[in-house]
Amino acid sequence: MDLGLNGRTVVVTGGSSGIGLATVRAALEEGAKVAFCARGAERLDKVAADLARDFGAERVLARAFSVLEPEANTEFAAEVAARFGGCDALITNAGQGRVSTYADTSDADWREELELKFFSQIHPIRAFEAQLRASGAGSITAVNSLLAYQPEPHMVCTSAARAGVQSLLKSLAGELAPQIRVNAILVGLVDSQQWQRRYEAREDKSQSRAAWFADLARRKAIPLGRLGQAEEAARTLLFLASPAASYVTGARLEVSGGVSRFV
Fold it and tell me: What is the reported pTM?
């Protein structure tokens, strides 16, 4: 299926690794021009060089900054407009989880987590809103977590923040329509550097990677029997972000292997 992204501009936050990088690469494969950002300059520069080699430097723009800095987002948006003529699809992916219970989450931890989860959405959306309105097919697609609807006792702070973000996105879907569509994916367990580190720290060093991850999927009761891949989340993101999903807004699509328990 043609997603209709050829020649369009896609912006991805948190785009130097994991789901973000898989999304950047998939968008380039669809013929899009892609601008992406991340905090770590060294890794970002290497990734950008590899992508420029594979897809052409004229289609790749990478900048290192924190999406929690409003001025940096504004400057990035201006650069995207100058380089590519505007933004058609914004994919917000920055953010990570905090492992903590209610009892061991300090006030400072709460503030830090809520700021990260909310303003990693708010600042980029504010910066690119005018360009998305002018696109004629503008879309915002957020990477959110299944925790928004299915909180875990060891991730109380992150679960609460994720739920708030999902409410924000639903509100924006109404407020920004009809010029901008707003959707989200709800990610379950996805194979990542975090899980790789946990595998490397396993107690039984004789256990293979395949066996360790299969055991993890069993313990987590994932019906499909495995963790997801970043590319699987990326394909879902691009569909929702693209003109192929032109009548979809305010939606949430699970990418979880069926692990959710809510209806």
Answer: 0.95
